[in-house]
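Quarterly update, task 2.4: zinc ion-bound model.
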Amino acid sequence: MVTTTERDGATWFACEVCGMLFDDREDATQHERSCEGEEPTYLQ
Ligand SMILES: [Zn+2]
């Protein structure tokens, strides 16, 4: 889930997986989807 952080009077959106900050919620959400997708989870 994308988390929000307030800094210098602005709201930032952080990827919960790697911690990268975005100034746009959509950018953060899109990034986080692919960020999570990078980890292979082929546990069977
Ligand atoms: Zn990320």
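Highlight for this quarter: The radius of gyration is 12 Å.
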